[in-house]
Each structure stands twice: as structure tokens, then as C-alpha cells.
Design goal:
mainly beta, 3 helices
């Protein structure tokens, strides 16, 4: 995610993951509450990523946005899945490493603090911690002993040298307010919210249920220029879409009458999640959906879900959930504390 130039996602092939929570909390959407996430989840259950929106009101612009999007289509012309993002677990005792901020680290948006780096881990799209491909190279580490989620964009670790772009550190006991870490503030994703809670993984699909919203991306020319809606807190100047294009933060919901049973078995699980929890526009790029790599999961994608198993689903099969106020993009980040 170049703050002014490009979105965060590789234009190649997919990734993500997170288990849905089953606990309850008094947090609501105001940011005033807290609570421990359920096992495998990233935030308390009242966080927006886990809300059932199957009966939520439609946005006043839903028809216009869906008509526009159906006319231009997904990136690559199909709903394809990328399976490249890694989510690493940092157990107690994982070494904490300081990093040297690069030109991809923005102030005051991004955090500077030592980051857990588990042995044997890997960056998005890489075999280890070196960013050899010059891609997004996300480094995502879940530090459950300290209830922190670390997400870094453009990480690169070579021996004793650790260089990193934007780092967002999330408190997993919090239900953040609509403005997240801060209005007009980015994160490791262009929209400014966390990545891990929106990634579905092979263990979830194999178990038959994805209990959270899903991350999706569009080409910059198909994202509305100059505005976003919560829970997004950021966008980029690279988006050039017209007034009928979806803004960053848009939540699309697969229509209830979509014939899910016509899809391959694994694809049905993902489609039902899109009917119940929807999907959030998070970044700019060509591959529509991101699922977590299966490198560190028990189940594997082979024979479970393929990159094109959802490609018959068109934008016209969705509705846009009410997104609330359109917030003009200024990039003047004011962090919440």
C-alpha cells in the first residue's frame, strides 16, 4: 500500500484467515468495551468483522453501485482467490525485533515498536523473511500471550537487518470505534483496518463454516475517488473510480437468493459467509479475494478450494450494506489513543 500511489495487494493470487468468535462483550461499536476474543479469533465478537449483516439495511446507493460494478467486473474479470498471505502465531518467548522504518512507513499513521518474529516463519509470497519479490511482503504475527496483532506492510529481514514499512499494532481485547486507530490513518492495508480477521483459511473451510466477513479488493480505477466509509479510515489518491463506484470500506453482501448449492463444496462455505457477514473493500489490486496460505494450517487447500471455484459469482449477485457517512479523504491522520 503506497499511501499516495498504489494499493497494498499483489496482483497475483490470494491469502488470509481468522476464526469467528462466539463470545460476547459489552463493547458495541463505540470503542468503549473490551473482552477476550474467543479461541482462534482476533477481536471480541462485537467487532464489525463478526457482525451478521444478512438482514442489515441496504445503502441508498446500493443499486447504483452494484450496477456500475457489474458493468466493469472484478479485477481480472472474475472472482479469483489469492492464497499467499501468511498469518503467524507468536507464542510466549518469541524474540522481539526492532526495525528500521523505510519510506513505506508513514507518521503518525504507523507504529514503531519491537515486533515478534517467530522462527521458521515467512512473509506473504515468500519462502522466508526476505522480501525478494518486491511485492507487498506482509508480515502478520498474532501475539496471543500479550493480546496483540502485529501487521506490517513491506517487511524485509535479512540476517540482523530488519527493515519495515507501515506497522499497525492492534489490541485484540478492544472493540475499536468506527474511526479505528484514527481518522484518515492507514494501516498495513489501504483501508486502514486489520487484515487477519478478514482472511478465511483452509481449517475454517474444511470445518464447514467461516464466521466473519471477508477481505476483497478491486482495481484502483473501480474504487470511488476521494471518499471512504467506516470501518475504513483511509484510502489512496490512486483510486480514480466515479461516483457510482464503491468507496473504501464498502461492505457487500451476497444476495440471499444466490444459488449457493450450485457451487463446489468448499466454495459454498465461503459464499455462505458472504451472505451472512459480507465482504469489506480493503485494498487496490486485481485478485478479488484473499485467503490465508495453508503453510501453517492443518487443512490444505488442495482438493478443498481452488483459485477459480467462485468465479461464477458476479458483482451483480451482491448488495451493498448501508455504509453511513461518506468521509472525504484528506490523509491528515489523527491517531486515536
Amino acid at each position: 500500500m503506497k499511501r499516495v500511489l498504489v494499493g497494498l495487494s499483489l496482483l497475483l493470487a490470494g491469502c488470509g484467515a481468522a476464526q469467528g468468535p462466539s463470545d460476547s462483550t459489552d463493547g458495541g461499536g463505540s470503542g468503549g468495551g473490551s473482552g477476550a476474543p474467543a479461541s482462534g479469533a482476533y477481536f471480541p465478537s462485537s467487532a464489525p468483522w463478526y457482525q451478521d449483516v444478512s438482514r442489515a439495511a441496504l445503502d441508498a446507493e446500493s443499486r447504483a453501485v452494484i450496477t456500475y460494478l457489474d458493468g466493469v467486473g472484478w479485477g481480472l474479470g472474475r472472482m479469483q482467490i489469492d492464497f499467499s498471505i501468511e498469518v503467524l502465531e507468536g507464542p510466549a518467548g518469541t524474540p522481539l525485533r526492532t526495525f528500521t522504518p523505510t519510506e513505506d512507513h508513514f507518521s503518525p499513521d504507523c507504529d514503531i515498536e519491537p515486533m515478534p518474529v517467530p522462527a521458521g516463519g515467512a512473509l506473504e509470497g515468500e519462502s522466508g523473511y526476505e522480501c525478494r519479490s518486491d511485492g507487498d511482503c506482509h508480515l502478520i504475527v498474532v501475539d496471543r500471550p500479550r493480546s496483540r496483532l502485529f501487521e506490517m506492510w513491506r517487511a524485509d529481514i535479512r540476517g540482523s537487518e530488519f527493515r519495515g514499512g507501515c506497522l499497525a499494532v492492534w489490541d485484540m481485547t478492544r472493540v475499536y470505534p468506527p474511526s479505528g486507530r484514527g481518522e484518515q490513518c492507514t494501516s498495513a492495508d489501504a483501508a486502514g483496518y486489520p487484515i487477519a480477521p478478514l482472511l478465511f483459511d483452509a481449517d475454517e473451510v474444511a470445518a464447514g463454516a467461516v464466521r466473519h466477513a471477508i477481505r476483497f479488493i478491486l482495481p484502483n480505477a473501480r474504487i470511488r475517488r476521494g471518499v471512504y466509509v467506516h470501518p475504513a479510515t483511509h484510502g489512496t489518491r490512486a483510486t480514480t473510480g466515479p461516483s457510482d463506484a464503491p468507496p473504501y470500506g464498502a461492505r457487500l453482501r451476497l444476495r440471499a437468493d444466490y444459488p449457493v448449492d450450485t457451487l463446489p463444496a468448499g466454495a459454498r462455505v465461503v459464499a455462505r459467509a458472504m451472505q451472512t457477514y459480507g465482504m469489506f473493500l480493503a485494498d487496490g489490486g486485481n485478485v478479488a479475494l484473499t485467503a490465508r496460505s495453508d503453510r501453517f494450517t492443518t487443512a490444505k487447500w488442495s482438493g478443498l478450494l481452488g483459485p477459480r471455484d467462485l468465479d461464477r459469482i458476479r458483482p451483480g449477485d451482491f448488495e451493498m450494506v448501508d455504509g453511513g457517512t461518506r468521509i472525504p479523504l484528506t490523509l491528515d491522520c489523527v491517531r486515536n489513543r
